[in-house]
């Protein structure tokens, strides 16, 4: 006769972990809904983007054109649908069958589950091998990263970026997977910004992965043409290049290089030399990513590519910066295993930068009617994300050169097994084992 103890042992650890992730995600989504709907500032912005998404689902169901859709926001004015037709078909048509409040809860809960998957995958990339430690860190990481500003804004607005991050990150879990690139291609087919990761695959000469990504991207576009041909022609025929539909370039939450230039120059006129600056930054950032790859740090190459894409995009809202989450987790694991105080302090500083909305605290406007004339210290505050991204791209190669060798593996950087922290004073967590990653496939 089985006892409760033996029955519990039959439940796989992964099932327990993902059940805990699901429950934690629902609880966090409920807390977010309660807190933000009772806040005078954030309640005005609650589901501002999800409202457009739900309207796009209704539009598809009604057989109307997606790109004639405009939702009037009391705060932001006219808000059009911005993404490819397939995104509305896959996500927002099913969601549109639910009442708005229920759809918001479901959307945010599933987004947080995707965040839990991002944390879990990043821990694996960082070398955490012990299943129980990984499970505990996944739940703790989910709760902690939910406080980051890009995640909070994503939950308030009801955004899609967490799913894109998850799809892209899946392609960096294993260096030699035959399916590598498919997640990037699908993500780019849902929202074009992940296309920069295909460029990263090309500059690192991973032709098979780049081919997979391109084919997956074309496949998503083809499905869109089959299901919504007129909308697909409108979108891919030119609308995809109209970044001005996304909002004012000088708005403070736009934390791209273009947004920074607009605020520094107090102008929303996109000058030709701005384009030159972004091309130079893009080439340099991809060069940094390729350098990290050659030193055996493909994950850091992924991070450099993500930061480069965020910088050179005409519009990178705060919630787009969810791509820094894996880097923060990876650095925290690195600092712990290496007992690297400087890296720990740097990670803490980065976490603070991506947690506190400083410009709001000091009274800098979010969406002014015209570019603002800001003092130097205000410029630093208003451009915190792009300045941090540029600093990471400038300093990153020096750090990579110091810690990563050229062999294509990162064994020289991996710490031995270390004891976990005391748990409730009654013992320790199992040893946190860090296995040496496999060499990169060339």
UniProtKB/TrEMBL annotation:
Membrane protein topology class: Multi-pass membrane protein
Main location: membrane
Places the protein is found: Cell membrane
Keyword Magnesium assigned: no
Transmembrane segments: 15-36, 105-126, 133-149, 184-203, 209-227, 273-293, 320-336, 343-364, 376-400
GO MF, one annotated term: hexosyltransferase activity
Pfam families: GT87 (PF09594)
Keywords: Cell membrane, Membrane, Transferase, Transmembrane, Transmembrane helix
Highest taxon listed in the record's lineage: Bacteria
Keyword DNA repair among UniProt keywords: no
This protein's GO CC annotations: plasma membrane
Family designation: Belongs to the glycosyltransferase 87 family.
Name listed for the protein in its UniProt record: DUF2029 domain-containing protein
Source species: Sphaerisporangium album
């Amino acid at each position: 006769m089985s006892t409760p103890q033996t029955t519990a042992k039959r439940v796989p650890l992964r099932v327990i972990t993902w059940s805990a992730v699901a429950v934690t995600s629902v609880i966090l989504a409920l807390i977010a809904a309660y807190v933000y709907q009772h806040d005078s500032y954030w309640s005005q912005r609650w589901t501002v983007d999800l409202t457009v998404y739900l309207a796009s689902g209704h539009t598809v169901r009604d057989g109307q054109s997606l790109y004639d859709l405009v939702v009037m926001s009391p705060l932001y004015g006219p808000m059009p649908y911005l993404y490819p037709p397939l995104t509305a078909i896959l996500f927002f048509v099913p969601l549109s069958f639910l009442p708005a409040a229920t759809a918001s809860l479901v959307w945010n809960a599933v987004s947080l589950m995707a965040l839990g998957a991002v944390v879990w995958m990043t821990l694996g990339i960082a070398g955490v091998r012990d299943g129980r430690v990984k499970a505990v860190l996944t739940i703790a990481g989910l709760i902690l990263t939910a406080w980051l500003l890009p995640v909070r804004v994503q939950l308030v607005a009801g955004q899609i970026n967490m799913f894109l991050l998850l799809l892209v990150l899946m392609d960096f879990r294993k260096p030699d997977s035959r399916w590598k690139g498919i997640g990037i291609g699908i993500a780019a087919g849902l929202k074009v910004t992940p296309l920069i990761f295909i460029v990263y695959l090309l500059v690192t000469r991973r032709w098979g992965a780049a081919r997979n990504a391109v084919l997956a991207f074309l496949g998503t576009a083809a499905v869109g043409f089959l299901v919504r041909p007129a909308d697909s022609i409108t979108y891919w025929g030119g609308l995809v290049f109209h970044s001005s539909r996304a909002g004012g370039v000088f708005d403070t939450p736009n934390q791209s290089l273009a947004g920074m230039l607009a605020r520094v120059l107090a102008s929303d006129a996109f000058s030709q030399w701005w384009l030159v600056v972004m091309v130079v930054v893009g080439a340099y950032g991809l060069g940094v990513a390729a350098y990290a790859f050659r030193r055996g740090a493909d994950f850091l190459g992924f991070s450099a590519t993500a930061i480069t894409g965020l910088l050179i995009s005409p519009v990178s809202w705060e919630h787009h910066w969810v791509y820094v989450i894996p880097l923060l987790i990876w650095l925290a694991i690195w600092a712990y295993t290496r007992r690297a105080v400087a890296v720990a302090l740097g990670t803490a500083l980065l976490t603070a930068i991506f947690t506190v909305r400083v410009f709001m605290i000091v009274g800098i406007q979010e969406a002014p009617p015209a570019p603002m004339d800001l003092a130097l210290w205000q410029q630093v505050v208003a451009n915190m994300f792009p300045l941090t991204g540029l600093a990471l791209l400038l300093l990153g190669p020096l750090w990579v050169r110091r810690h990563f060798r050229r062999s294509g593996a990162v064994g020289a950087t991996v710490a031995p097994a270390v004891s976990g922290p005391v748990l409730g004073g009654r013992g320790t967590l199992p040893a946190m084992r860090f296995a040496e990653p496999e060499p990169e496939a060339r």
